Amino acid sequence: MLKIEDISFSYDNNETNYNLADINQNIKEGEVILLCGESGCGKTTLTRIINGLIPNFFNGTKQGNVYLKDNLINEIPIYEISKYVGSVFQNPKTQFFNVDTTGEIVFGCENLAMDVDEIKSRLDHVVKDFKIQPLLDKNIFKLSGGEKQKIACASVSAVFPDLFVLDEPSSNLDAQSSWDLEDIIKNWKQSGKTVIIAEHKLFFLNNVVDRVLFLENGRITEKWSIDEFKSINHRDYGLRQINLENLYVNHDGYYSNNQDLMELRNFNFKYGKKQVLDIDGVKIPKNEIIAIIGKNGAGKSTFANCLCGLKRSCKGEIIWGDVHLKRKDLLKKTYMVMQDVNHQLFTESVLDEVLLSMGEENISRAEEILTNLNLIHLKEAHPMALSGGEKQRVAIASAIASGKEILIFDEPTSGLDLKNMMKVSENLIYLQKLGITSFIITHDFELIMDVCSHVLHMEDGKIIDNYKINEDKLKNFFLKN
Question: Residue-wise over 59-97: b if at least 16 C-beta within 10 A, else e?
């Protein structure tokens, strides 16, 4: 199906510093291959080699060849490659061409000039497979990150390619949607499709992957069958947990036991006439690390935007201790790291980005924060030139440097490997010790069990549960039913 022969590649045309080096691999038709390794190890670059984005869209120095069914992929026009290779990127917004969801799902089919009946048939097929009937005929820009990811997967699937290349496909998906993705990959596999997945989250791939390729510094250094992979100690290789059943809470020391409360009363928000946030009343402990969980589209990001004063028409009261906070108070007291951090990166260097969020510039403090987040070697780099995970950490660094009392993180570990997830955990604990209250909107069960002390569970814009961290409740939500 796919033959990778002596592939080496460098983005900066530096033949002594390759992003990929000496990659050789034969992938059979119908195989499901997992590419794993720490951030920056070369996973995304290898996917770009396979799907033709290198050299068609990314320049650099390339050696070696890739053959797709005995055809040299470099000699296939990029519009022809799309018939055989379907790609889903880490940030789904980068592959959208339409404003409405239904138009986006069928865009690839229309582009290949399929007849109307065939397009309708394929639309029905993927809607059923992906369980996305409620998402049809919606404005893409009003979807949650996870819902956008589902639409991207469905659009690629509708073309019925022979090979699927997925780069961090679960990065914005809730637990149930990740398990749904496992079922979809199983269906592809049963249909004889070949699937290559670059991922940090491993739990939903446990029963579908055939082989695992582990990359370090642009090289494949380990190859495992799935049975061999299940038997290794994943933390020895800096990899996430493959079995969520093995996770447990082990951080009693992180609780502040602070009796002060933050209270929300009649807290609500509408998009037009649609009620998307409706919280009668809730009391939340201050100075804790609070996980906000719920399915994609439950209202978590809207809740966060209202909590930090970004929604002018949000109604209700926020009581911080004995003080009633107005919107202008929230803007002064809170700092938010958005789900799409591209919206909040403004400067020409990573160091300047962190300094920008400080009341008074303090270079030594900024460099200390960057060191703690494993970013100091990138301090002079342009933020927009970084990987998705690196950008995420830059935004987190800015939040830490802001000195605000309430920090809100929307999917802070999206696309992060184990090492950098743990760096985020360490910094959250550090903030908690400084008296900071952190709200973490997350689908990352590993992060919650590692660091969070309290949980708000949202559904349909309401808080349906509010509790000190509880293993049984969390496993009931995150594990496959």
Answer: ebebebebebeeeebeebeeeebbebbbbbbbbbeebbe
For residue 85, the number of C-alpha atoms closer than 13 Å in the C-beta half-sphere is 26
Task: Tell me how far the alpha carbon of residue 107 is from its chain's centroid.
Answer: 24
Identify the burial level of 374 via C-beta atoms within 10 angstroms of its C-beta, where 0-12 means exposed, 13-18 middle and 19 or more buried: middle
HSE of 259, CA atoms in CB hemisphere, 13 A? 0
Cα 459 from chain centroid? 20
Measured distance CA(199)–CA(166) in Å, rounded: 8
| 423 vs 372: CA distance, rounded Å | 7
CA–CA separation, 367 vs 202, rounded Å? 32
Residue-level pLDDT, tens digit, the chain, 481 residues:
899 999 999 998 766 678 999 999 999 999 999 999 998 899 999 999 999 999 888 889 999 999 998 889 888 888 888 889 999 887 788 889 999 999 999 999 999 999 999 999 999 999 998 889 999 999 998 888 778 888 998 999 999 999 999 998 888 788 888 888 898 899 899 989 999 999 999 999 989 999 999 999 999 999 999 999 999 999 999 999 999 988 888 665 556 666 788 999 999 999 888 899 999 999 999 999 999 999 988 999 999 999 999 998 999 999 998 899 999 999 999 999 887 888 899 999 999 999 999 989 999 999 999 998 889 999 999 999 887 778 888 998 999 999 899 999 998 888 789 998 998 888 888 888 888 999 999 999 999 999 999 999 999 999 999 999 999 999 999 998 6
Q: How many beta carbons lie within 10 A of that of residue 472, not counting itself?
A: 7
Helices marked H in 159-252? 175-190, 226-231
Q: Answer yes or no: are the C-beta atoms of 452 and 250 closer than 8 Å.
A: no
In a 3-state reduction of DSSP, which class is residue 369? helix
- Per the listing, tokens 């689908």 go with 443
- Look at phi and psi of residue 156 and say left if phi exceeds 0, alpha if psi is from -120 to 50, else beta: alpha
Cα–Cα distance measured from residue 346 to residue 398, given in angstroms and rounded to the nearest whole number: 11
- CB-CB contact of 450 with 419 (8 Å): no
Tokens (6 digits) for 373? 């987040």
Beta-sheet pairing, 261-271 with 334-337:
unpaired
Closest CA to 24 of 213, 307, 280, 232: 213
pTM as predicted: 0.85
Sequence-ordered alpha helix ranges (H) in 220-299: 226-231
